[in-house]
Amino acid sequence: MNEIVRVTTIFALLILGFACYFLVLEAFFPRRVAKTVNAIQHMPGRSFGIGFVNFMFFGAIVLVLIGGVFLLINLGFLPVAELKALLAKWWPLILIVIGVWQLARPRRDGQ
Questions:
Q1: How far is the C-alpha of 101 from the C-alpha of 99, rounded, in Å?
Q2: Domain count, the chain
Q3: pLDDT digits (tens, 9 = 90+) for 23-77
Q4: In terms of residue numbers, what domain contains 17?
């Protein structure tokens, strides 16, 4: 039973992680996402390939950033304890900033 709970939890966290990943992509790269959506609508047969290429592109960016953070931690330039304390206190601000960004940017349909 514990194995089922563990696998379900990991699966749920993966889904949540992918949802956050795509929300951040939409927030920081709206033109690229709009271009991809437009290409998918005009060529539905190629949608998997286009989506996979974009996923790999942004995935590579994320891996480079994560690797850079771990390198800075290992070299002692990023103090982990202070970052954890800062993030534990101010994490709601990240959500607020992303939400305001989403509300303030112009919509594709002209609203």
A1: 5
A2: 1
A3: 787 788 888 888 877 877 777 666 666 666 666 777 777 788 888 888 888 888 8
A4: 2-104
